[in-house]
Structures are given as C-alpha cells and as structure tokens.
C-alpha cells in the first residue's frame, strides 16, 4: 500500500509532453559471446544513442515509463515504456501483489503487453514490471532458438539453456527444488553495460497466476531457472549486483578477461 501511495505521489508532478511519446530506442548490445541475461545478445553493432545521458535525463526516462502507465487507457497514441535504470527507488523496493480481480483489467493487461514488447524489443529473455516503472509483482520471460543461436554452443550447453515459450507470471512465488547451484555471468537491462557472476539454484519451482488469473506452476532448471530467480528478485527490490560475487563485476568490454585470483570458477557446483 505504501509503495502505491509513494508511486502515485511520484507521478503527480510529471508533465506529459510530446517528448514523452517518443518511442523507445534500441538498447545497445554487443557481439561479445557472454552469458548475458535480460538481453539476448543480438549480434549487432552498438548504436551511440546513449551518449551524454545525465542522471536527470535518465530519471525523466523512468518518469516517462510511469507516465505511460498512468495515462493507460485514456491515451490514444502509443507510449512505449523505457527500461528504468539502477538507482531509481522502484528497482530497490518490493513490488506489491496484483489482486486477482485486477488481473483482467485493461490496465494490467496493458502493463503485461508493454512488458512483453519492451522485453522483445531489447531483445531480452526476461523482464519484471518494476523495470518499466511499475511496482507490481509481474514477470515475463521467453527464450528462443534464435537468441540461443547467438551464443557459442559450449556456453549454452554449460548453462543448460533451452528455448521456451512466452511465460507471463503474476504474483510469482519461487522455491528451490534442490540445493544444487551454478555460477555464471549475468547482466540486466537496468544495469546496462556491466556483468557479474551470480550463484543461482539449478532447479526451481514457481507458482503464480497467468494473465487470465488462472493458477500456473513452472518447473524450471538450468538457464530458465536462473531467469526466474533474477526476475523474481526484481520484485523484492533486489538487483543481481546485490547478490553477485563482488570481484567479478566488470564492464561488458572486459567480460572475456580472466576472473581474479580467489574468485570461484564458473559452472555447476
Ligand atoms: Zn534484471
């Protein structure tokens, strides 16, 4: 409840101008073969569109995302939310549950549609609602043959990464099915340009509701289990950097450099 009041408060002074209707620009990605996370590593060049971003500018970007949600139904022109970046409180506070009665509403359905669109546009393999400025417990995830083909086979094999269809989970509850874990590099659209090693459970079970409000259960292993843990963490206000092996943190450009002495090895434990 508190988060909603604060959320509403934050939204009030946001001016809605024509600029707010600007469509999202493509998120930069690079060819480096990494265990990237939200972003599916499309092998394209990096457009220099994010130069000169200041704190202020990026704040207004997340403000636009929220404004888009607030406008919701009354706005005819399409507003593409942008991803919120680390530092915005919405990414560091727990999200609230969606009530079953709310799920069918046009507003929640639009939030879900927006999330899927933003994830695919990135392109990414998972997204949590706080990443478009919405403090609600909703996640979407999807991995495709095409995305997987961008990564070296040895890497996707080690990660146990396999394609799966789009999943929308409202109010997900995650539990690990075994104590087996694995360490791999992760990235996040909200911490763009960096990676770090994170230890995750290898097998998890997630229960929740689908976008029609029907109960669903997902048994996941390998990379899909990692995506689910990463996205569910977002709903608790936790970013991967809160859980990373600290001395593995690095820029994308330094991704292929060896791990520092003393760091744990990548792979299944
Ligand atoms: Zn993330």
Largest sheet: 5 strands, antiparallel
The helix/strand series, from N terminus to C terminus, equals HHHHEEHHEEEEEHEE
Distance between the termini: 40 Å
CATH fold type of the domain at 89-268: Peptide Deformylase
Number of helices: 7
Q: Which strand-content bin applies to the residues?
A: 15-25%
Radius of gyration: 18 Å
- Give a list of the ligands: zinc ion
Assembly level: single chain
Subcellular location: Plastid, Chloroplast
EC number: 3.5.1.88
Family: Belongs to the polypeptide deformylase family.
GO molecular function: metal ion binding; peptide deformylase activity
Q: Could you please describe the fold and organization of this structure?
A:
The chain has helices spanning 2-11, 55-71, 100-103, 106-121, 145-149, 153-158, 222-235, and strands at 126-128, 138-143, 164-176, 181-186, 194-201, 203-209, 215-221, 250-251, 267-268. The protein has 269 residues and is an alpha+beta fold. The chain has a domain at 89-268: Peptide Deformylase. A five-stranded antiparallel sheet has the order 1-2-3-6-7, sandwiched between helices. A four-stranded antiparallel sheet has the order 8-5-4-9. Strand 4 (181-186) and strand 5 (194-201) form a beta hairpin. It is globular, with a radius of gyration of 18 Å. It starts with a helix and ends with a strand. The model is unreliable at 1-36 and 41-76 (pLDDT under 50). The site of zinc ion has 5 residues, from helix 7.
């Amino acid at each position: 409840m508190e988060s909603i009041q604060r959320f509403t408060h934050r939204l009030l002074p946001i001016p809605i101008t024509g600029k707010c209707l600007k469509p999202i620009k493509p998120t930069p990605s690079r060819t480096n073969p990494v265990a990237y996370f939200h972003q599916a590593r499309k092998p394209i060049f990096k457009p220099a569109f994010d130069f000169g971003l200041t704190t202020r500018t990026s704040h207004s970007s997340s403000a636009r995302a929220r404004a888009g949600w607030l406008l919701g139904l009354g706005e005819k022109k399409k507003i593409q939310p942008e991803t919120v970046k680390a530092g915005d409180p919405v990414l560091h506070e727990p999200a609230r549950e969606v009530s079953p009665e709310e799920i069918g509403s046009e507003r929640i359905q639009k939030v879900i549609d927006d999330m899927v669109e933003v994830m695919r546009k990135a392109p990414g393999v998972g997204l949590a609602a706080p990443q478009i400025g919405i403090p609600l417990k909703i996640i979407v995830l999807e991995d495709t043959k095409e995305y997987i083909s961008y990564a070296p086979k040895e890497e996707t094999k080690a990660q146990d990464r396999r394609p799966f269809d789009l999943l929308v989970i409202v109010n997900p509850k995650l539990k690990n099915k075994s104590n087996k874990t694995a360490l791999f590099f992760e990235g996040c659209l909200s911490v763009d340009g960096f990676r770090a090693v994170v230890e995750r459970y290898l097998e998890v079970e997630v229960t929740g509701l689908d976008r029609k409000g029907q109960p669903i259960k997902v048994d996941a292993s390998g990379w899909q289990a990692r995506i689910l843990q990463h996205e569910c963490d977002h709903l608790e206000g936790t970013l991967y950097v809160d859980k990373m092996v600290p001395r593995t943190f690095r820029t994308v450009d330094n991704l292929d450099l060896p791990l520092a002495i003393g760091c744990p090895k990548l792979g299944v434990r």
